[in-house]
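From: lab user (bench 3)
To: helpdesk
Subject: output format question, protein + magnesium ion

Hello, I'm new to running complex predictions and I'm not sure whether the block I got back is the full result or only part of it. Here's what I submitted:
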Amino acid sequence: MSEIAIRIEALSRDFGTIRAVDSLTLEVPRGTVFGFLGPNGAGKTTTIRMLLGLLAPTAGNATVLGFDVRTQAGAIRERSGALLEHNGLYERLNAEDNLDFYGRIYRMSGADRQARIRELLTHLSLWDRRHELVRDLSKGMRQKLAVARALIHQPPLIFLDEPTAGLDPVAAASLRDDLASLVQKEGVTVFLNTHNLPEAEKLCAQVGVIRDGKLLAVGHPDTLRARTEGNRVTISGSGFDDNILTLLHARPGVDRAQFVNGHIEIGLTGEVEVSSLVSLIVGAGGQIEEVRKDKASLEDVFLALVREEQEVE
Ligand SMILES: Nc1ncnc2c1ncn2[C@@H]1O[C@H](COP(=O)(O)OP(=O)(O)OP(=O)(O)O)[C@@H](O)[C@H]1O
Ligand SMILES: [Mg+2]
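Helpdesk reply: Thanks, we reran it on our side. This is the complete output you should expect:
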């Protein structure tokens, strides 16, 4: 079997005059979690819908698990799980019956369904709630149940379209933890749409950044971070004024200096001794309480990429 779970070649999709996905080329290796990152309207959902054969491409090709998205959509949908914008649960059935229903659709035996439902619900801390109607579960619990639904037939590949959207931070973190451990345990390939950067950092071995239908970059989050050269230094204290910012700006290797929530945030492009920046600030009358040096976050990378692209246009 091929090592590539998803192969996309120059795939495009138009809606009237809008090119929602623009000549996308991408490969997702088996057993990896691929994060598809992009702002609203970037083309993420459209891509997943094409990969599941729910939407015909305008141009280009794609295969999923070796099957062609144009002609073999049935085979793709049988072998993959999907959690799209609609969670696919029946509000008036209880948690267990929902999963049992989907297990039957995938023609699982009664014993297999029972074992799998117990395994998934236990993992997701929902086993005790299995007799409750979906409409009585919290949003976070429903979302977990929807993940269980996508995984019921042990597919080798799942598509998740913003699985934590609309959840509170605690529920989102809990779902992410569960996803991370499930994915590791079952070795499933995941295609994850998200605009949540910490989520991509936590879960994904590879991320692709898309905007206006175009893929801007792809790689491991660390590799992308390294591409956006530079570190960030955050300095907190008092007596900071615009004059200090101007002086910092004038320093070679300082890309930007700005106030963020009362702190000074400095973006560095080269190797700069932080102590020299500290003495500059002190010399100009600032009092320093704390200095923190961070690597570029995925958010920095993302913003830099989106900005680069805008400058090119
Ligand atoms: N059925 C449709 N008819 C017309 N235009 C559409 C349709 N579906 C998507 N689009 C357009 O295609 C573009 C990409 O939309 P898409 O839903 O793929 O973005 P997305 O990256 O999933 O965004 P979000 O983060 O908001 O979910 C948008 O401009 C959108 O308006
Ligand atoms: Mg979407």
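A quick orientation on your result: The longest strand covers residues 4-15. Let us know if anything else is unclear.
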